[in-house]
Amino acid sequence: LVQMVESGGDLAQPGGSLKLSCTVSGLNFHDVAMGWFRQVPGKEREGVACTSRVGTAAYYPDSVNGRLTISRDNAKNMLFLQMTNLIPEDTAMYYCTGLRVPLIYGGSCTNLNAFDTWGQGTQVTVSS
């Protein structure tokens, strides 16, 4: 059974930082490209950071503007998202999951390329 367990979300002030973690089980983690996605009520889930199987390549949409950094520890089956200079628009539920097609093979960092398996997510709220 493939499982993703996200943690680290919190209430943060604008300009602040958070680090999200995701523990993955039930698959060969080092064989799977991974991504962080976020969703707000009423909107489609969007990819905000994706990384290759060994973590040497990453993709970020323009909307995150260099404020997010994805990393992974394949020895611990964990994925991370360092968030800095937070803005209210970062408020969302954050999820991690695998990518069906790896980035190096042209896979996109979008919901369409994401696994069907999702964790419970971790809530990030940015507000003063």
Major sheet strand order: 2-10-9-4-5-6
Main sheet attributes: strand count, strand direction, barrel closure? 6 strands, mixed
Gyration radius, in Å: 13 Å
Average pLDDT, all residues = 95
Percent of residues in beta strands? 35-45%
Uncertain spans: none
| Spatial separation of the terminal alpha carbons | 40 Å
The SSE string, one letter per element, is: EEEEEEEEEE
Structural class: mainly beta
Q: Write down the overall geometry.
A: globular
Helix content: under 10%
Q: How many beta-strand runs?
A: 10
Secondary structure tally, helices = 0
Describe the structure.
The chain starts with a strand and ends with a strand. Helix content is 0%, strand content 41%. The protein is mainly β.
Features:
four-stranded antiparallel beta sheet, six-stranded mixed beta sheet, mainly beta, 0% helix
